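User: Write out your own:

AI:
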Amino acid sequence: MTFDPPVVPPGLTRLRRRLATYDDFVADLVRTVERTTVAGGPLGRRWDVEGDPRAMKLVRLWAYVAEGVAAYTELTAGEAYLPTAQDWTDLRRIAALVGYRPARPVAAQGWVMVDTDRGAAPLVPAGTRVQAPGTPTRPAQVFEVAEDTQLHADWAGLTATPVPVPAAPAGRTLRFLQDPGFRVGDRVLFVEELAPTGAGAPPPWSPDWSAWWIWLLWWWYLYQAALNAPATPLAVARVAKRVADLGTVVVTFDRELGPLLSDPSRVYAAYRVVAAAGSARRQSTTVRIPATGTPSATSDRIQLGGFYTGPTNLESAAVVLDSQLDELSPGQRVAVVDWGVSRTASATTDQPACDVAEPAVHSRLDWEVAPGSTVPASHLRFGGTLAPLARADLTGRPVRVYVVGPRIPAQHYELPTTVTGAPARLRLYPAPAHPVERIALRGPAGTWDVLTCAPAPASAQELPPPGDGPPPPRGLIVDLVGAALPLAADRAPASANLVRVRHGATTVSTLGSGDASRPGQRFPVPKAPVAADVGPDGTPASTLELRVAGLAWAERPTLYGAGPSDAFTTVLGPDGAQTVVTGDGTQGNRLATGRNTVAATYRVGGGTAGELPAGAITSLLGSVHGVKGVVGAGPTSGGADQDDPRRLRTLAPGRSRAGDRAVSRADLADLARGFPGVSHAAAWRGAGPAGCACAGTGEHVAFLRLGVAGPRPPTAAEITALAAYLDGRRDVTVPLCVAAGTVTALRLTVQVVPDPRARPGAVTAAVTALLTAPGGPLDPLDRLLGVPLDRSDVMVHVHAVPGVTGVPALTLDGTPAAVKRYQLVALAPNPDVTAVTP
């Protein structure tokens, strides 16, 4: 042979090092034979090899053999290198040399909201199956309940709203957080109270008994100070209507309240009026009036309309009323109101004043309104001075006394439509009696979303007010964890009856019989793919459980070093199928002889096929007592397909660099990319994405996951899983923020000028195929985070398409001004490619 060794260029996906082709071998053999020297001259002068049919048959047979050997040698050499290997078995074997095992299909997980019978609290057992019916774009998908879940009757039928906020009333209605006890037709006295001073900020809440007493005494002081603080009467209004609304009470009055209660920062109170009476008046002096002349300055005078409110220079105060208050019973309070009417027309009107106190003595007397004319009246004496009314000019002033009910804070509350700010809180009504960790909230689009929550601190709850106020409404304030704000929650239906589900259906199969005489028995698992689940530490674990004669055997990554133990390993096939491999007696025990003694339990499913949108799960397979139906709450996420050859070629070198521990930032990125379902990852020190957990600068890892439609940002649960996985392989004393990357899809519009000899449709189709082909030069999976995509990056590939003679126009819509470290910039699907004539 006269062939030179082939030159192998770098960067090949298939090794090209074949020595020659069939025709080359034929021509070379003929040429070599004819040039061979025989008897002092070339053999070709005596023998025409090409003209000899029998000789050419032999030459062709030799060429066939040579070509086969050359092709086999090229294929064998190509399968020995990770970048050029094409066979799944060879790729898996090469990756195993550096300790990387192909990732199994990981099952997506999610939540299902359970609709229960009225008043029912069923137990939903693990393994209960639910289904998302098939659509034209995907087959039906089955999920199973992950663990036994106890539901509660008081978790159903909830209504979620943002926390009510104080506001000035806009009309005649007031929303009370607790039932004020007012009924239609009741008269209500509104007063403005001066806020007590010196109270300071409330002490922090603590379950410790001493701190609890301090907290309670602070509120008691505030309550007592509010009772004894001066007040200004505002108005008396009559109740026209009342409506119960989500544990609050909306009361409509017969007059506008906006001008009266205009400042939400002030302290207002409302009292139901039980009875009312005015201060008594009488003819205090009766004198003779002369027929002629004028009355005497000292004795001839008449005082009419005098009011008696008691002496102002005594420690006690008293009021005599113009009627008998039979409704006033011991322990009941009255409001003594001076509406600010002056005694003379020329005097300046005083500001209204008010006191609410409990009379020390209530006695009946006959009040003489005129000589010889008496009426029954009430005489009220108070134990202390009525501070606002004990004024020097009060004597002779009219007052109004109202027998009142309990003090009700006259604060109007509005229900916002969205949750904003921090902390993010929701109000659930009626308040569940059992602790709530998650709730399903129905959004404006009609789908249910799952929110993680925790009860808000006691100081934020609707606590009963100290004293004689009514009990609070049965609403529960919860803090939301990781919710995306703003959150629409305008009287949204909610439920805490949620169960966690995992993609796939559990199957039990008999794999075969044990034979103690055979080392390393192999048993194919009948159904594929076998799903894996992500554990609390973020590590994927297979759902395959092997039992031999009823006893469980443990799965190991490899049987090397297993010793005489009941262990097995699995070999993953290209389609997700698994083969169980047992030991040889030295590296793992052999199977004991027995018929059909090897059985496996596993869940068939996994992959991105289980990632479904919210509301896709609608069917309960089978029945559970007390359960009427189910609906998917939020999208299912966390699904990952099995590693394909392309991913294996990328991940095995990263595993070789990082091993199974993170020492550098590059190790963090390599480990993150090796996590099932992660398509992109980057590690750096500096500013992180907006809203990341570190809220500043520091060590960061940002990543994207591969979804059904391409790379996508991870969910909160997926971030938690990767963070747990990395924490098990790094120094956790160094703070690390694991955050979601972002995807920026650029809309491409390009015009090409096709070769006049080519069909325009074929040229545009070829350009589109190049731009969107998996593994192509602009495939999003091959792009790195933080790398910009410019017009020139696209232009060079469009010009390389056969049949393109020019590109007169190319635009990329949505190009960011600056690409962040955590940002993937790629082409959006379906670019607009058109052909134009020059």
DSSP finds nine helices and 51 strands in the chain.
